[in-house]
Design a protein that fits this description.
This is Appr-1-p processing protein. Pfam families: Macro. Residues 1-167 form the Macro domain. This protein has 169 residues and is of the alpha/beta class. The protein has one domain (2-168): Leucine Aminopeptidase, subunit E, domain 1 (3-Layer(aba) Sandwich). 38% of the residues lie in helices and 22% in strands. It has helices at 31-40, 44-50, 88-104, 124-137, 153-168; strands at residues 2-7, 17-23, 59-63, 71-78, 109-113, 145-150. It starts with a strand and ends with a helix. The model has no long low-confidence stretch (mean pLDDT 95).
């Protein structure tokens, strides 16, 4: 499986599945969720919410509407109730469940952000390490192209450095 770090807006990516950094309610707010909601140009938020709430670390799948993908996989790395903070385990579990769901759907390509950071309050570099480790160790059945995306240049450099360390270890 090819594993690369890219920079950009997830809503502008082309893949079989794009991943939403979701909370357990699956309500699509700002950040990655907001970008995907706007790019979908359809009732993606309503469809997502109708499939929730999900357990922490759980996933749900919706249509991608006008996004250049077949599916959006909503990965709940943070609770939408209580303190709303992601944990190391919730990030690992949401990433693992996302990869498994993509394989189950027969996806060959997937774009995933660093789950649990941003509004979820988890440290970006640590979150990137967790997501990249899960992607790196995953043994796919259909996935051949997984791109870990960061929005800003500094975040992209961080993800690229982590990916390179994993490749050389």
């Amino acid at each position: 499986m090819e594993f690369t770090a890219i920079q950009g807006d997830i809503a502008e990516q082309e893949a079989d599945a794009l991943v939403n950094a979701a909370g357990t309610s699956l309500q699509m707010g700002s950040g990655v969720a907001g970008a995907l909601r706007c790019g979908a140009n359809g009732p993606i938020n309503e469809e997502a919410v109708s499939k929730g709430p999900v357990d922490l670390g759980g996933v749900a799948v919706t249509d991608a509407y006008d996004l250049d993908a077949d599916y959006v996989i909503h990965a709940a790395a943070m609770p939408h109730y209580g303190d709303g903070r992601a944990t190391s385990e919730s990030i690992r579990e949401a990433t693992r469940n996302t990869l498994e769901k993509a394989d189950e759907l027969g996806c060959m390509s997937l774009v995933i952000p660093i789950l649990g950071t941003g509004a979820a309050g988890f440290d970006f570099e640590t979150g990137a390490q967790l997501v990249c480790e899960e992607v790196w160790s995953y043994e796919p059945t259909t996935l051949t192209d997984v791109r870990v995306i960061a929005y800003s240049e500094p975040e992209h450099r961080t993800v690229t450095d982590i990916a390179e360390r994993l490749r050389s270890s």
